[in-house]
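Translate sequence into structure tokens.
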Amino acid sequence: MDKRLNHMPRLPLLTRTIDDSIVLTLFDIANELGKLGEGVSSKAGLTTQQLLMLLQIAGDPNFAVPKDGASRKGPGIMASEIARARGVSRANVSMLVAQLLRMGLVSQAEQPDDRRRKHLTVTGAGRRAVADIESARHEANQNLFASLTPTERRQLLRSLRACLERLWLVDRSGGVGRAPAQPARRRSA
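Result follows.
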């Protein structure tokens, strides 16, 4: 048995329902991914959130693309587009963008026809920071999913994306949210 696993707590028994167990396990996974992300991002002197923002500005294909982004002119992405695509506040994105600007990893340019619209792009230093951690990022991801076959990895991704899409439909205030009801079936006469 791998000695590194000795420090891990025993897996909990199922809670009241499998759904509860899945959600609690996802919270534990998020916590562990945060720690893993900090280890990887620190290699470039970044926090996990700064790295994620930098990757999105760099156009990493694994991030959601704003639906209205394809029609805009010019390179880059706007902070408001990132906020919409990630489902986070504009203030949160603005704070991270300001940090990346101060670090010289991104730049912003006003759109000629509307100075309020600022497009973000990655600088040479930002591209080097992403390149510096790419192998560590790839290795961490490979290690994380080493026990899953490629087919299991694709199924996991489909399942997680389905959960994420469902989350986008529910109440985020902490109350019980309900997705839109399925249309009623007509009875055949």
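Note: The chain has one domain: 14-167.
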